[in-house]
Design brief:
The complex is a heterodimer of chains A (about 350) and B (about 300).
Chain A: H1 7-12, H2 23-35, H3 39-48, H4 57-90, E1 95-98, H5 99-105, E2 118-122, H6 128-137, E3 140-142, H7 147-156, E4 163-165, E5 171-175, H8 189-194, E6 197-198, E7 205-207, H9 210-223, H10 230-246, H11 251-261, H12 264-278, H13 284-287, H14 299-310, H15 323-338, H16 341-361
Parallel strand pairs in A: 1-7, 2-5
Antiparallel strand pairs in A: 1-2, 3-4, 4-5, 6-7
Helix pairs in contact in A: 2-4, 3-4, 9-10, 9-11, 9-12, 10-12, 14-15
Chain B: H1 8-13, E1 17-21, E2 24-29, H2 33-42, E3 48-50, E4 60-67, E5 77-82, E6 91-92, H3 96-111, E7 115-125, E8 128-133, H4 140-147, E9 153-156, E10 159-163, E11 169-170, E12 176-179, H5 181-189, E13 195-202, E14 205-210, H6 214-218, E15 226-234, E16 241-244, H7 247-256, H8 261-264, H9 266-277, E17 280-286, H10 289-297
Parallel strand pairs in B: 2-4, 8-15, 15-17
Antiparallel strand pairs in B: 1-2, 1-3, 4-5, 5-6, 7-8, 7-9, 7-10, 10-11, 12-14, 13-14, 16-17
Helix pairs in contact in B: 7-9
The chains are: A alpha/beta (about 350), B alpha+beta (about 300).
Chain lengths: ~350, ~300
């Protein structure tokens, strides 16, 4: 099952030196980066190595365009946060930012050139109703879903349906946990919330502890079946981990926390694949300290076979004959992990029935 | 590069046909014969090559192909893709020549932020450009199609690209899109103009593209400063009115007609104010094409 890592990955992991690329190789690299939403990330990668002057101007134009787009999101997010701060000031509990928004506001390495669309926020389950009400007062309204979808989210998921701002169009995903309530490994959310760190520049807004950010990113990636952005997400993990190490922590600290939260499986995969794909240094010794729920025996090569393919950019040049199958199987797996069968089967039947109906009306 | 016996259809159907258009190279792949025919007509004067023999960077890899859906039982549908990404819904397959034009515009307007991109026609004479921002239905394309037969050079019929470092307009000359009655107006007035295949009953009505003037294609790498911003408005039966428009209002209107003004932030504001500082701005109402051409002929280039 030999699989060749695509050009974009070998640039990021240092196997390919960008100063030696021909225009034809740049052509492929830009295509892969565009499809993986990593143009801006690539721009900063080149900039950090002070090589912007060495790449052909026709190529730089695309990297620069991606960077401008990322910068615009960056500014928009700060503006939205000023609005959120007005709500946060009135609450007795902090609004905890997650994922992209947290990386940006925390000034983290993973934020550089990351493209995202929603603002993810977490509060405790008991605070959801009040937070939702306060968001509505400031102009965010619930997306227009039917009663079944509303129930699906509110009873089973770890977030409520997305809220859109009436005038500005910004989207907020309000969470009370990082995994659906129906998942066996669903952690105790209080453990995450109590370790959140308040921000000095935004009153009432917090970020998860660094190790919890990594664990959340891993959980999101390895429980979610939608892997079109898998490449971006594995890059996130790589950035989050390397910054964690630069701050003086060790992978062992992460493993200890994963054991505490009972989220060994996603952390196992995260460490395994940032190592195999992006060359992040991880020793077997540390991985073996993940004390339960990790794959063993034949499952390891099987999951490698699937994830290595699914985590590549979603571009035709990065696929082999098994990629489609791998993505499909992981999609099925994610549903299997997210819901027990007696809930899953009626849910999927309902979803496919409605999909059929909506296609016919178009 | 181009030779007389270059087989456009063969490249289009196999590894892809690379077209050089202004600043950009497009690699177009499509199995559709109708698209090959329209490209042969409309893009005759452009440089093209086969992607298999390409040694240079290509900006956009686009594709139009037939897709299957529930509705395709009743009519064949085609869809536009930028490297696997499909920004629009599938449309009836006979609209393929129009779909490729819309798709290529979308590539530039959604992916490029090194220029301020305004939804406007832009034409040049004596080294200075007129930018004509206007919503659909204002007769912008008809006016453009006429003026480029009257000695103006076509930079673009849809997208005005303003460089952020020197505030000049970069050409992106493409076939000019005409709709409904405009098709006959131009056909009757300029019998030598070459028309592509007509796409009937699109969302915009009947659409037909005309081949850009040979000289406009030949000079597609020559950028130029903007001297005028004119907001045209065709209104049946109206007297020709050419009136000054304030610079402040021009700024607001052009910003509203821009694709990436807000994405560019400070750079968008800076480049637009720099352009408007140096331009004369007008509102222009017309119903008589002869008088309209006359008004443009009388524009005096800055010193």
């Amino acid at each position: 099952m030999s699989f060749h890592l695509p050009l974009l990955i070998t640039v990021f992991n240092g196997q390919t030196n960008i100063t030696n690329l021909t225009e034809v190789q740049w052509d492929l690299l830009i295509r892969q980066a565009r499809k993986a939403m990593l143009l801006a990330k690539l721009y900063y990668f080149v900039e950090q190595r002070q090589l912007l002057g060495d790449i052909p101007p026709v190529v730089l134009r695309h990297l620069k365009s991606g960077q401008v787009h990322a910068e615009k999101q960056f500014n928009d997010l700060h503006w939205e946060l000023r609005h959120l701060e007005r709500i946060a000031k009135k609450l007795e509990y902090p609004l905890v930012l997650l994922k992209g928004a947290a990386y940006v506001i925390g000034g983290m390495k993973a934020a550089k050139g990351r493209i995202f669309s929603d603002i993810d926020i977490m509060v405790s389950f008991d605070s959801i109703a009040n937070t939702e009400k306060q968001l509505m007062i400031q102009g965010w309204v619930s997306s227009n879903l039917d009663a079944y979808d509303q129930r699906y989210y509110r009873e089973w998921m770890h977030e409520i349906p997305a809220m859109y701002h009436m005038f500005r169009g910004s989207v907020i995903d309000l969470h009370h946990n990082i995994l659906p309530r129906t998942v066996k490994a669903c952690p105790n959310a209080d453990l995450l919330l109590t370790n959140a760190r308040p921000l000095s520049e935004y009153h009432g807004i917090s970020l998860l502890a660094h190790e919890d950010m990594i664990i959340h990113s891993a959980t999101h990636l390895f429980y979610d079946g939608e892997l079109e952005h898998g490449c971006r997400d594995i890059m996130d993990l790589n950035d989050l981990l390397s910054e964690f190490i630069e701050e003086g922590y060790s992978v062992n600290d992460l493993v200890v926390r994963a054991n505490e939260l009972g989220l060994q499986k996603p952390v196992y995969y995260a460490l395994r694949y940032v190592h195999m794909i992006l060359g992040f240094p991880v020793s077997d010794e540390v991985i073996n300290k993940l004390n339960q729920n990790i794959p063993t025996g034949i499952m390891i090569p099987i999951m490698d076979f699937l994830f290595i393919r699914a985590l590549m950019p979603d571009h035709t040049s990065c696929n082999d004959r098994w990629t489609g199958f791998a993505r499909w199987l992981l999609y099925v797996r994610s549903h299997w992990l997210r819901m027990p069968l007696h809930q899953l089967i009626p849910h999927l039947l309902r979803k496919s029935y409605r999909r059929m109906l909506s296609k016919e009306t178009h | 590069m181009k030779t007389d016996n270059f087989d456009i259809a063969n490249s289009l159907h196999s590894s892809g046909l690379v077209l050089n258009i202004g600043l950009f190279k497009f690699n177009i792949y499509s199995p559709l014969n109708s698209l090959a025919e329209s490209i042969e007509i409309l893009y005759k004067d452009y440089q093209y090559s086969d992607y298999a023999r390409m040694t240079e960077f290509v900006d956009f890899h686009v594709e139009i192909k037939q897709v299957n859906s529930v509705t395709s039982m009743f009519s064949k549908q085609a869809q536009f893709f930028l490297d696997g990404l499909s920004p629009f819904n599938a449309l009836p397959i006979q609209h393929a020549p129009a779909i490729i034009e819309w798709g290529m515009n979308w590539c530039v307007s959604s992916q490029i932020n090194t220029h301020l991109i305004i939804h406007a026609a832009v034409i040049e004479k004596n080294g200075f450009a007129v930018v004509m921002p206007a919503p659909p239905g204002s007769g912008k394309s008809t006016l453009t199609a006429a003026l480029i037969q009257e000695g103006w050079r076509l930079l673009s019929d849809e997208l005005t690209l303003i460089r952020l470092d020197n505030y000049q307009a970069s050409p992106f000359p493409r076939p000019v899109s005409l709709k409904n009655e405009s098709i006959d107006v131009i056909k009757n007035r300029y019998p030598d103009v070459v028309f592509g295949p007509i796409s009937s009953d699109t969302a915009k009505g009947n659409v037909c593209h005309i081949r850009p003037p040979t000289l406009s294609v030949k000079n597609q790498h020559i950028e130029c400063p903007v001297a005028w911003i004119i907001f045209p408005k065709y209104q049946g039966g109206v007297e020709t009115q050419f009136t000054k428009f304030s610079k402040a209002e021009t700024l607001m209107s052009v910003a509203k007609n821009s694709f990436n003004y807000s994405v560019l932030g400070v750079d968008g504001f800076k480049s637009l104010t720099k352009v408007i500082d140096k331009t004369d701005c007008y509102q222009f109402k017309y119903s008589n094409l002869d008088e309209a051409i006359q008004v443009f002929a009388q524009l005096e280039s800055p010193q």
